[in-house]
Records
---
Amino acid sequence: MRLLMRITAFLLLAVAIPLALVAGGCADGIARGKAEKEILNVLPEIIGPADSYQVKVDGSASAMLKGELRGVRITGSNVRPEGLPRLARLEASARDVKVDTRTYRILSAQQATWKGWLDEEELSEMLRDRVPYLQEVSVRVTADYLEASGRAAYGRVGADGSVRAVPAVRNGREIWLLPRRVSALGVGAPVPDWAGQRVASILNPVYVIPTEGLPLTVEKIATEPGLLRLEGSLDVTKLAAPRR
């Protein structure tokens, strides 16, 4: 199961469990505590192993009985979903959720968002997979740009170099790197338009986020010291209700 589908499953589960607990007679604090514990127990199976997870459920018992939740939120550290990039950090949340208490179908939600962070080690691995003739690839991320360095090998011919680029999102699901400066053999220069387009065509898309069949968008991508951050939103009203 793909990561974003698993995030979707989490959001639905995070709504269903508190409602079930409140319907069973649990008071505010008890319901929230039990809900958070139940969700925490199943997260490794739903999303994947992680160094740690945290869950927060907000809402009163009286509101939950009417199918209203103030918010649900998950954070994960070093999340390792099978067959997908490792996330140094993951966040997913939904706020002001209204649910049909009979079917658990989500009727409305003011906001549902997700964020994922990729570290330099994982980005280096992604580039190695994307461009096989690049050897000894390493990625450095600053607050302003991403720099990939390595050795390009063509048969017996090789040259050391680096590309400084800024990240971008294409089509709401593709991660691109737009070259701004190229260095080869110790000489660096800004990238002319034609050269930038050529390098971009070789590198990109660096990764295609698997969002097929999901009402999900990737809206922002940015660099932080040591990390690449992705942000997006999710229309939870278009999700199927969970099995009970």
---
Amino acid sequence: MNAEHGWQGQPPSFRPPFRLSLRVPNALKTYDVKDTAYLSSRRTVDMSSSNIRKNHPIRVAVVMAWYAPYRVPLLREVARRKEIDLSVIYCARVEAGREWKLSEKLPFSATFLQPKRITRFEYKHYFGQSSSIEYPKGLLTTLRRISPHVVIAYEYHLECMISAIYALMNRCAYVTWSDVTEIHDAHMGVFRIVMRKLLLARSKALIGSSSDTLDHICRNFGFPRPRAFLSILSSHLEDFMAPAYNDSTATRDDCDTFRLLYVGSLIPRKGIDMLIKAFASFFRAFPHSSLTIIGSGPEQENLARLVHLLGCDAAVEFRRHVPYRSMAQEMARHDVFVLPTRLDVFGLVVAEAMACGLPVICSRNAGAANDLIEGNGIIIDPDKEEELVHAFTLLAKDPPLRRRMSESALRVLKRHGLQSAVKGFVAAIHTAAGQTMLKET
């Protein structure tokens, strides 16, 4: 990896500057939640507990930085639960740089705020990626209107700190919902780590989008494992695949070309430069192969020049944008999906490719690797070109192996479907509510 990327090779291990011990309340030790556990734990909790009053549903406010379509199915199913009265607060309409279209009507109560930018900054160690701090105007007013028993805030942004202060002042439960992993946090400064510790200290439960997230927060921040719940970030796949089910053309044609696919932003941390270099080496031995790169970003011109320099223009296709509703059909026309990312908290597109029956070549730096790659793909070091070339060669030479991986992908996703994610999410709500609503009864 180049020096400007902030580190050479694998990022260093996460080392918090200090450790905070979080005690589990005695009342929690007698409270169980049905069919939900932290990773391999067999600890269970009764979802129909008499602790939750039938005539008084748990009012839950979910505070999110922005709207994301892949979160909608999970929130929709949670909102359908009779014991939960769900409201979602979006602090912005769409994340900067995304081309998602907002649904005209969401299947749950939603409020959109108008953020006010305070400052903009650039991550020194995240490949030059920029971000900003924005004040969620109207958040406190909206929370007071909802008057929740439980506030669930996504990640550790400014709106999360405001939500935690509201929860403290109004004696309601605060829950952290996070995607971050150890590799993501490896270069976080002291201020960000302190923010995480303060919010986790206030959290009655933790919702993690991957097992890597839960392991990182419980191990490095001392969060109690019995209060940590997995709600994996692949719960939208039924909705994602729906257009493909109705399209008979969404299948791989029987040509001889071995087709590789990448979908994502064209930014340095995604590792597309290494993907192109590896493909160029592979292409010399397998001229009947192609690489499709779907996405846009500031690196597009540099990547196009690299393709030309390596002499594989005819085999590499750049497609700036494919509508979200058409992505499943497009994926199904390829043989193998590749995610060579140098850093991703999860890598949602891996699950989407698996749902389309594609074997996956996945970077070990993606949070999805440990949860989703089980006999259905190959995990590689994104900084080693030879590992990518070897993976391409292995799958190109062995179509039966690709078919077995495709079948395995669908089996893995059955274990990590929508209802599994809903169980973990609802379990966290009940755990948090059990520490606040019991005081009202």
---
Amino acid sequence: MPDRRASVAIWSVFAMATMLVSLAMLPAHRRAEVSSDVLDGLRDLVDHERTHTPMSHEELVLAAADRNALDPLLVLALIEAESGNHPDSISPRGAVGLMQVRPEVAAWVGLPNLTDPATNLEAGCRFFAWLLDGFGGDVQLALAAYNAGPAAVRRWGTLPPYRETRRFVSRVSAAYERLAGRPMPTYHPSGRGSARF
């Protein structure tokens, strides 16, 4: 089944074709007066699509990152490593959506509807900002805590020796470098408070 944008595009092409066929069937003396109305209708259709289409994931990422004082490229890199940019992704451990947020984390941050991309991004960004703040802005430790949980990072006092967690941090770092054209920062002031673990 096509997504909403594809459905709107298909409908728009059909509507334009119908209008053009109708215009071609009119007598020549009526075509001139109607053609400007048809063009106005097409402009209205395009404007409606532009103003009534949901925000793209990139726009949602920018908004959620901004609200949570995060580097949007870091959020995009985290999303790439977590879900491969698939909003419908569900992990075997129950993590959901673009940022692979677990239901208990979503409930803790007060945003339980994880299947909605905007809510998923906000929940993931809130949690990641909290982790950054708790680990003094250390990006690698916050990423490790996002993957393995803050208790594991506290217990080890550094990146836990878990292969999955170390690979996750490396994948985020590589994605960040590819997106930003520079290495991932080691420190990111979250500006969200003074929680420390």
